[in-house]
């Protein structure tokens, strides 16, 4: 399935619009991951554990979006937008959402 942030796919005319599709993933922060991330903040450097969690959540959200598009008979999703939001009373959860328009090309 083709997924793109652009409103169209070059060389592949859109034959049918199938509606908006979404995928959302909420991940919780882990105490040990937070501890090591705080140490990284002090000594500098990137937090590989958080980057992996963020990448996994983004990929899962896109997979959900693709599954919804396929269930509607689509073979592509155009205009994808990715959003990241910290949620929860203490900001201990991260939501990654992906939305776009399912189409047939």
Radius of gyration: 17 Å
Instruction: Give the DSSP E fraction (strand runs of 2 or more residues).
Output: 35-45%
The rough form would be described as: elongated
Look at the structure and name the CATH superfamily: Hypothetical protein apc22750. Chain B
CATH classification, class level = Alpha Beta
Uncertain residue segments: none
Q: Main sheet?
A: 4 strands, mixed
The tally of domains stands at 1
Cα end-to-end separation: 10 Å
CATH topology: Translation Initiation Factor IF3
Description:
This protein has helices at 31-43, 48-71; strands at residues 2-3, 16-28, 76-87, 93-104. By secondary structure, the chain is of the alpha+beta class. It has a single domain (2-104), classed as Translation Initiation Factor IF3 (2-Layer Sandwich), CATH 3.30.110.70. It has a four-stranded mixed β-sheet with strand order 1-3-4-2. A hairpin with a 5-residue loop joins strand 3 and strand 4. The longest helix has 24 residues, at 48-71. Belongs to the UPF0145 family. It comes from Erythrobacter litoralis (strain HTCC2594). This is UPF0145 protein ELI_14505. InterPro entries: UPF0145_dom_sf (IPR035439), UPF0145_YbjQ-like (IPR002765).
Task: Lay out the secondary structure.
Blueprint: E1 2-3, E2 16-28, H1 31-43, H2 48-71, E3 76-87, E4 93-104
Parallel strand pairs: 1-3
Antiparallel strand pairs: 2-4, 3-4
Organism: Erythrobacter litoralis (strain HTCC2594)
Protein name: UPF0145 protein ELI_14505
Pfam family, one: YbjQ_1
